[in-house]
Write a structure and sequence with these properties.
Layout: E1 7-13, E2 17-24, E3 29-36, H1 44-62, E4 67-74, E5 78-79, E6 84-85, E7 97-98, H2 99-107, E8 111-115, H3 116-127, E9 136-139, E10 147-151, E11 154-155, H4 187-190, H5 192-201, H6 211-214, H7 224-232, H8 236-260, E12 264-267, H9 270-274, H10 276-289, H11 292-295, E13 299-302, H12 309-316
Parallel strand pairs: 1-4, 4-8, 9-12, 12-13
Antiparallel strand pairs: 1-2, 2-3, 5-6, 6-7, 9-10, 10-11
Helix pairs in contact: 1-2, 3-12, 5-8, 7-8, 8-10
This protein binds zinc ion.
Zinc ion binds near residues 168, 180, 182, 185 and 187.
Length: about 325
C-alpha cells in the first residue's frame, strides 16, 4: 500500500507525444518532462530508451528511495500481464514491444502497464469526477470512444484485457462503417470524426450560418470543435447534430447501465467542452432506454481532470 511520502513515476506514451512525470499519492504532479514521439523517425526501442533516460533524471531529482513503481499508460491492445504493447492504432509500428521489461531493466523498479482508457478511468476514480464511488464507468468521447469500468471497487480487465471497449457496441445495424471494420458501432455515431461526418453529410438546413463559416467555408474542414463552438453560440444546425450524437451516446450508456448498474458515468473530451449541450440529450436517452431504478441512481457527468488526466492516469495505476 502506498504511503503519503511515496511517489510514482508515470510514463504516458501517445501517438504524437510522450511524457514522464513524478506524482504523489494525492494526485499532485511534482516534476514532468515531455518529448514528441516522432514514431515515423524513431524505433520503439529508441523512444523507450529516451523515456527511460528522462525517468532516471526525474528519479534522481526526488531520490530513488521514495519511488515505489512505474506506471505506463498507452493505447491498447496490450497485455497487462506481460507488459507487451501490440501495435495500437496511434502507434502502428509498435508490434509486440515489451514495454514493461525494457523499463524494468533500465530503471530497476517494478512497472505496471495499462491501456490509456483504463488508466484514465482509474485517475478519474482516485482524483477526479469518480471520487467516492464503487461502481463507475469512464468513457472518452474524442477521436474514438474508449472506456474503463470500475465495478464493485476494482478495474475490470476481462480475459485478455479487452473489457471496457464500450465504443464498439453495436447501436445501429447497417449503420455507418466504424474504424474497427464493423458497422453501426457507438464510435461510428458519436465520436468526434463521426460528428464531423454527420455535419458534412446532413441535409438539415442552416449549416452555412455558423458551422461552415467557422470551417472557412470548406465542408471538408468542419471539425467537432467547430460544431461545439457553434452550438455554444446558439446555432440550431450545430445543436441538432449534437442532439443526434447525444441520443446515440445515451443509448450506448443505457446499455452499459443495464449491464453494470453504475452510480456514475464520466464522459471526457466533447462532453467536457460541450457540457449540457450534449449531456442533456444523453441523459434524456438514458431515461428513455435504461430501467428507471438503475437510471435514477446513476449520474452522468463530465470528466474533471482536464489536462492533468494523462499524467495522473499513469500515476493512478499504483493506487488500485
Ligand atoms: Zn467499431
Amino acid at each position: 500500500m502506498a504511503t503519503e511520502q511515496d511517489v510514482i513515476l508515470g510514463v504516458d506514451i501517445g501517438g504524437t507525444k510522450c511524457a514522464v512525470c513524478i506524482g504523489n499519492t494525492r494526485g499532485e504532479v511534482l516534476h514532468r518532462l515531455s518529448e514528441p514521439t516522432d514514431g515515423a523517425n524513431r524505433s520503439p526501442e529508441a523512444v523507450m530508451n529516451s523515456l527511460a533516460d528522462k525517468g532516471k533524471t526525474l528519479i534522481a531529482t526526488v531520490g530513488a528511495a521514495s519511488v515505489i513503481g512505474v506506471g505506463v499508460s498507452c493505447g491498447g491492445p496490450l497485455d497487462t500481464t506481460t507488459g507487451i504493447i501490440y501495435a495500437p492504432p496511434n502507434l502502428p509500428e509498435w508490434k509486440a514491444v515489451p514495454v514493461r521489461s525494457l523499463l524494468e531493466d533500465a530503471l530497476q523498479l517494478p512497472v505496471r502497464v495499462e491501456n490509456d482508457a483504463n488508466a484514465t478511468a482509474l485517475a478519474e476514480w482516485k482524483f477526479g469526477a469518480g471520487i467516492g464511488t464503487q461502481n463507475m464507468v469512464f468513457m472518452t468521447m474524442g477521436t474514438g470512444i474508449g472506456g474503463g469500468i470500475i465495478a464493485d471497487g476494482r478495474l475490470i480487465h476481462g480475459r485478455n484485457d479487452l473489457a471496457g471497449e464500450l465504443g464498439h457496441q453495436t447501436i445501429l445495424i447497417d449503420g455507418p462503417l466504424c474504424g474497427c471494420g464493423k458497422r453501426g458501432c457507438l464510435e461510428a455515431l458519436a465520436s468526434g470524426p463521426s460528428i464531423e461526418r454527420s455535419a458534412r453529410e446532413s441535409d438539415l438546413p442552416g449549416r452555412e450560418k455558423r458551422v461552415l463559416h467557422l470551417a472557412g467555408g470548406d465542408l471538408n474542414k468542419i471539425t467537432a470543435a467547430h460544431i461545439v463552438q457553434a452550438a455554444i453560440e446558439g446555432d440550431d444546425f450545430a445543436n441538432a447534430i449534437l442532439q443526434r450524437a447525444g441520443r446515440y451516446m445515451g443509448i450506448g450508456i443505457a446499455n452499459i447501465i443495464q449491464m453494470l448498474n453504475p452510480e456514475r458515468v464520466i464522459l471526457g473530451t466533447i462532453a467536457v467542452h460541450a457540457g449540457d449541450l450534449i449531456l442533456e440529450p444523453i441523459r434524456k436517452a438514458v431515461s428513455e432506454f435504461a430501467w428507471k431504478r438503475s437510471a435514477e441512481v446513476c449520474s452522468i457527468v463530465p470528466a474533471a481532470l482536464g489536462d492533468r488526466a494523462q499524467d495522473l492516469a499513469a500515476i493512478a495505476l499504483w493506487l488500485q
